[in-house]
Model the fold of this input.
Amino acid sequence: MAYQSEQELEDNLVAQLTKKVAGKPQFEKVNITDIESLRANLKKQLSKLNGFGISDNELKQIRNALGKGNVFDKAKILRDRLQINKDDGTAGYIRFIDSYVDKNHFQVTQQVTVEGRYKNRYDVTILVNGLPLVQIELKRRGLELKEAFNQINRYQRHSYWAEDGLFQYVQVFVISNGVNTKYYANNRKQSFKQTFFWAKENNDRYTELNQFVKVFLTPKHLTDIITKYVVLNETDRILMVMRPYQIYATEAIIDRVAEREQLKTNNQSIEKQNGYIWHTTGSGKTLTSFKTAQLLTGDSAIHKVVFVVDRKDLDYQTAKEFNSFIKGCVDGTDKTKVLVDQFTGKNVYYLEKDGEQQSSTKAKGGKVNTRRNEKLIVTTIQKLNNAISNKRYSSRMELVKDKNVVFIFDECHRSQFGDTHQRISQFFTNHQMFGFTGTPIFAENAVSKFSRKYTTSDLFHKPLHKYTIVDAIKDENVLKFNVEYVGRYKKKDSANEVDIDVEGIDTKELMESDVRLEKITDYIIVQHNRKTHSKAFTGMFCVSSVPALIKYYELFAQKKSEGKHNLKIATIFSYAANEEDPYADGLDEVVLDKVVLDKVAEPQAVYSHSRDRLEEFIGDYNKMFGSSYTTKDSESYYNYYNDISKKVRERKIDILLVVNMFLTGFDSKTLNTLYVDKSLKYHGLIQAYSRTNRILNEQKSQGNIISFRNLKKRTDDALALFSNKDAKDTVIMPPYEEFIKMFNQALDQMQTIAPDTASVDSLEDENAELEFIKAFRELMRLRNVLSTFADFKFDDVFIQEQEYEDYKSKYLDLYDKVKTNTAPEKESILEEIDFELELLAMDEVNVAYILKLLSKLKQSDSDEEYQQQYKALMQTIGGDPELRSKQELIDKFIQENLPDVQSAEEVDDAFAAYWEVEKEKATQVMAEEEHLIPENVKELVERMIFSNQEPLREDIVATMEKPPSVLQRKKVIPRLAEKLKGFFNTFYGGM
Done:
């Protein structure tokens, strides 16, 4: 096949879109290349959609309304009706899009030019009723897809907001290099990891552009995506678009409901019409269930849609997340009475306290949520059980027992295997039930009840859609696991070969012996920084029992008091009866049927020793964080549970010690390591492992599982059950030896381009530099993974650590070259490349660390030692992206000031004084060069320190001696913003 240019790719796409189907083109090809022709076409198309000719005066009103707000505001305008004053004096109502595809008109154009800060030309634009709602950015075959993503980001900064901001109406972006094609929502906050392939119902992906066009870029599909499956997140004020498996699941449930209604209409049996969605943990089930529930409430045949969770914290969390999608669409049900009121259509009154709704009465000043979707309820299974079982509510609940109610159960593998399911099924005579689970219950992992093993299919009848962990890893929606087994495995020369019992006589005495537990504690202390990239991430440690947890906690505390670590350890466990759940199944019948899960735990005298110890541990937590939680009342304990959740996500806790809590239903993108001293199996194992594999950034390359028990067969069995027998090759990362081989192969490829560090400087052009950047970036990715292995040392690879660091400096030199190239007339092919600098943040290097090195340098005993330490120090600074901006200043301090410092102890004070002088000089220089008021600059920088946010346009203007004209602002303010950010990073970043 001949080489295909980007222009040919673009022309072929337009030809495919305008191809005739059933005698007419799906998309009208139009020649719209500037803002004037875009406005003229908008007037024409809106006139057609709304059924009357729009005059110039009326268009002016429309343009005025369309120009207001940001991307999120405009997404709301798009879905609303705009009232205008028509020329004849009457009110007109303008629609911009219709949910019926036939009422919309689709057009395609190429190379629309818009001038903002720079003049930009966009590849292919799809217009719907005249508005640009889909933007397609193409790169020629052979280039990275991420380059198209980065180019769109550049357009968002440079020009989408210009000329009425019409391109801020784009709802969905499509990026392609011909062989790979993805889509994503217009949301500037997202990363490349939040771009998606479209796929078939069986999750096979459409990657080629021409395949993608056939199924995704059709008028019907785009209408559905924009009107139904782009979700407006009210909390974050961003657009989200659903992934293919989420859409298929939603439509499968809606079809199942329609199927049952049809059977009723035909007087046929409606037995076994439930269904369940098997979507792996971490795949975004909350968004899927929300959209399903929202669409079902639009069905006039349905009385209520009830979303059921199995824990109080999930009740609050789910209501909060649902309300983030549509503000105020659901109320919480903090009391059973409130749930009954919602079922029976009675007004529910609430007060707002600390951002959380609490039920109240009208007399106490409570207000009714007028935005609530009265057909949608979010509650716990415990309150639902109480509503139908408690005699005080029976007369009211009788009114709804025959109504058509659809139940959606979250994590249905946990909550649906007690008597509660039976009671709900028997009480509601006209119900339909759907379940969501990442780990269904099959015969192999079912728990016996009355000599019968119930499976998910027994209760929910039919799997409606499946998206396993293998699918999610393939789509890069979750990470692989790196499982390391630590203990006596007879491995030679391995840091994981530790004298720790892992199996054999699996008695409690042996596995919980003081000697064994201390060895495990010591291993974790030594390895934790390595596993978490110097605490860039957090860890969780799950253990076999509460007594074992108490021993571990005491060991960590003892070793901290001895100065052996500075880890922040926290713990939480249930001290209620029946706490033991050896495999973390989450299927404890007695706990569920006694309905003690409504609170995280209720104080009971049964485990008085455990409770006393937990109270003591919470006391340690209170000292660490200045809080006052206690087990002495259930609300405080519940708040402690929520606070721990928050602090783990914020990386304020290094290791969370648990028995069963937090092993299911807890999501934290910042958690990357799970230490295991517990005999997990089947769904308990997959759920626990899955705490670690949420996508975050390039540095988080896998979920680390460090097992102190031999769980290899159980891991293989669980993966086979929940995906397929070959799943371990997809889900589990290769062993250390394989990564060494991959690193050496990548090194060989890089050194083919640049045989030594000096040769990087003489690469002939930007294309050669691009190849080096890609090659070294791959090396960094592999080094990032290798660094988490306990066995890793540079002796195992074919490059010395010093040489690797030298290459890294050259890599950063190229990054600096691109970053400082501000010439608008010359576009660099390196501009769209992602250097993935987070991969370089391997160590905790900041100015405090540099001061230690400076003190050490001052203490050098010989000139030779001084030179070695000086070189190492400058290498450290040059290899850290944040400190690199300070390199020249630090070097100046070493050359000009350090010789006059009397001792190592005085280095800190001397450096601080020097830094203040240099900061003042830099402020004066910037003020003189840019005609700024120095005092105003200092005030602005102080606000930036306080808010940790970039400066606003008006704040920048306030620093200037003479405010710029409107035309000047486009160039002056971005330039000053960059200078201020550079100043801030140099003098305050990492300080």
Summary: DSSP finds 37 helices and 31 strands in the chain. Residues 907-930 form the longest helix (24 residues). The radius of gyration is 31 Å.
